[in-house]
Amino acid sequence: MSLHDAFTLRKVNFREPLPETVFQQVVLQNSKLWIYTQRTNLLVKTEVETGEKARTPYKVADNGNMRQKRAKAKKMFVDKLGLHCFMLTGHEVYYNYYHSDVVCPLPVETFKGTQVAFKSIDILMFDESDPCFFELLLGSEDGHIFHGVFQVDHDSGLLNVADPLKVLLQTPEFSPILEI
Fold this sequence. Notes:
The protein is mostly beta strands. 3% of the residues lie in helices and 41% in strands. The chain has one domain. The radius of gyration is 17 Å and the shape is globular.
């Protein structure tokens, strides 16, 4: 069996054209498609059902935090359930819950008086039946792994800190943590 035979490819047709055609980041998890356009910091999400056209893309209306700071997402991470989207912009991390139209900055403290540049991220669920309560690991440019615990308010989509980000591990070489 060839690698080409292992995958089924199909075109995703949106009912309405997207306002941006230059996609910077695209992630598909659990039939949820997340698209980020860098030029206008537009975050679009839709659900793709098997055998159907994708639903009309849902534009995140309140993306003002990223737009005001002109933050550009360098990496976008979506958990395996497709519910939590994190965008790394260097020294800042932004968050959006799938059922919310609010993009909010993740509360990140300075470490030893300096800003931390994040390079990698992973999310760990405490309980699969409650996907709104999770642990977060962030890898930094200078070899630190940060850990924090967060809970999402399902109604507002806002992220609440249960345990703030703290250094969990520091590599002896201070090498960037590119993947967690």
